Automatic annotation (TrEMBL):
GO terms for molecular function: 3-isopropylmalate dehydrogenase activity; magnesium ion binding; NAD binding. This is 3-isopropylmalate dehydrogenase. SUPFAM superfamilies: Isocitrate/Isopropylmalate dehydrogenase-like (SSF53659). Its EC number is 1.1.1.85. Its cofactor is Mg(2+); Mn(2+). GO terms for biological process: L-leucine biosynthetic process. Keywords: Amino-acid biosynthesis, Branched-chain amino acid biosynthesis, Leucine biosynthesis, Magnesium, Manganese, Metal-binding, NAD, Oxidoreductase. The lineage of its organism: unclassified sequences, metagenomes, ecological metagenomes. Homodimer.
Length: 343
């Protein structure tokens, strides 16, 4: 039996997670066991910490982890001594060794006019952002005194090598490595290592190096240029939210976080807990449905089911499914029915 650890989290997290479980139970009935756990802000309320040892152990023992989103104003604090929901997410990624975060960005033919970018700019975009997920400034030492604060940014050669291999392995033609090598020492190491992995292991592919500032500009002026974009943790976080405007909404962006060997992956939308719309039943569940498709593909190896789910989302959009974030009026429940009707 295949066990999925389900971490709904906070805000719209539980709303899009419930919709996804409803969808999966109808789509692959009896094939998945869902085990739900408190995580993020709601775990802080219950246990004083965003990720308990029990929940971490349950995730480790599962076949895959399906995660909604965490965080919200209730737990927002600038006090370093207070627990934050986001610590649960970072702890889970680190503890499971999920160094590779895949964030596909696709322009749906039926949504070309939903993007604030021009139709002809976004048309045909199909890229994969490969974000390094367990290193860099997110995980370096942090200090804080009354007059000063610091966040340490570190990368080892081995960390860069393994994420570079994921990126080259996913590319057919072009890998764009994004850094800030004109300023940062970690970026200079990054660039050297990516270049060497390219020369030694993937010479048949094309590699280009771009600086992160100009990449931010090129992503929205010529997104079609990109195939696989590989970058460090924080740049990948920022660039992937930016890239979501190509698709039309953050509510369409899925992600897969993968580790080595048979470590269970974590599958979650790129978006957060959206406190501004939480509880209204209007969250777009498609990012989470597409994350579930990534789980079927990368987590469970169910490629044909993954393709069927992705194609159902595609067809539902083609038939006019539009949630609020895409300029429509359809809520979470009806959006779920619209995709189910295509399966
Ligand atoms: P957000 O991604 O939650 O929301 C940004 C904007 O996009 C909001 O206007 C929101 O309404 C909209 N949006 C996001 N997802 C949507 C969806 N599925 N359907 C419709 N609209 C959607 O970012 P934020 O507001 O900056 O962050 C809110 C909280 O979420 C913070 O506490 C942050 O730390 C947390 N966060 C968590 C994750 C995660 O759990 N993976 C990711 C990002 C942010
Ligand atoms: C994401 C989120 C997280 C990140 C936060 C909530 C810690 O923004 O998954 O993109 O920065 O990685
Ligand atoms: Mn983010």
């Amino acid at each position: 039996m295949t066990t999925i650890a389900v971490l709904p989290g906070d805000g719209i997290g539980p709303e899009v997670t419930a919709a996804t479980i409803e969808l999966l139970e109808a789509f692959v009935p009896g094939r998945l066991i869902f085990e739900e756990h408190a995580f993020g802000g709601c775990s802080i309320d219950l246990h004083g910490t965003a990720l308990t040892d029990e929940v971490l152990a349950a995730c480790r023992a599962s076949d895959s982890v399906l995660l909604g989103a965490v965080g919200g104003p209730k737990w927002d604090t600038t006090d370093p001594a207070k627990p934050r929901p986001e610590q649960g997410l970072l702890g889970l990624r680190k503890e499971l060794g999920l160094y590779a975060n895949l964030r596909p960005v696709k322009a749906y033919a039926s949504l070309l006019d939903s993007s604030p970018l021009k139709h002809e700019v976004v048309e045909g975009t199909d890229m994969l952002v490969v974000r390094e997920l367990t290193g860099g400034i997110y995980f370096g030492e942090k200090t804080r005194t009354a007059t000063e604060a610091s966040d340490d940014c570190r990368y080892t050669v081995a960390e860069v090598e393994r994420i570079a291999r994921v990126a080259f392995g996913a590319a057919k033609k072009l890998v764009t490595s994004v850094d800030k090598a004109n300023v940062l020492e970690t970026s200079r190491l990054w660039r050297e290592v990516v270049r060497r992995v390219h020369e030694e292991e993937f010479p048949h592919l094309e590699l280009e190096h771009l600086l992160v500032d100009s990449t931010a500009m090129r992503l929205v002026t010529n997104p079609r240029h990109f195939e696989v974009v590989v970058t460090e943790n924080m740049f990948g976080d920022i660039l992937s939210d930016e890239a979501s405007v190509i698709t039309g909404s953050l509510g369409l962006m899925p992600s897969a976080s993968l580790g080595a060997g048979d470590t269970p992956g974590v599958f979650e939308p790129v978006h957060g807990s959206a406190p501004d719309i939480a509880g209204l039943g209007i969250a777009n569940p498609l990012a989470m449905f597409l994350s579930a498709a990534l789980m079927l593909r990368h987590g469970l190896g169910w490629e044909s089911e993954a393709l069927a789910l992705e194609s159902a989302v595609d067809r539902a959009l083609a038939e006019g499914l539009r949630t609020r974030d895409l300029g429509g009026t359809v809520g979470t429940a009806l959006a779920t029915q619209a995709v189910l009707a295509q399966l």
